[in-house]
Task: structure prediction
Amino acid sequence: MTSRTVFFNVIRFFFLVFLQVLILNHINLGGYINPYFYIYFILLLPFEIPRWMLLLAAFLLGISIDIFTNTIGLNASSCLIMAFFRPFVITAISSGPESLIGDTPTLQNQGIKWFLYYSITLVLIHHFALFYLEIFRFSEFAATLVRVLLSSAFTLILVLISEYLLYPKGK
Result:
């Protein structure tokens, strides 16, 4: 990774943590929709990032959110689970290393189909882990599943809007 890539990822890290803590954590629509946009950081990490660095970055991201929300370990564990499965998801939906265009998994680089498979899978993994660890019982399985699906949809909408705003399709 270049120093420029590291710099932009550090800036993105702090921006997303503060956006999540100061604005998005205060959005709760009907008790079912909570946007967790901070995971966009993990989605946009470069393909060639070493696994240990991916897991460390995910842990630091999650624990940063946990510190501000007084949920020590909940977001950190959910981010670690998401980061653990990220390389497997990339391998599963890619036809090979030569099919990965650019150094980061963006909509512009990979295309809409690939990016949707990638982001939907990882956002669902994160949200399943987060909400089921939070509730920590299966007696409310259906209500928690609705929260997972609605919050995932809202988070994905924010991710796609950001992709179109930050990485507009070139000519």
In short: The chain has a mean pLDDT of 93.
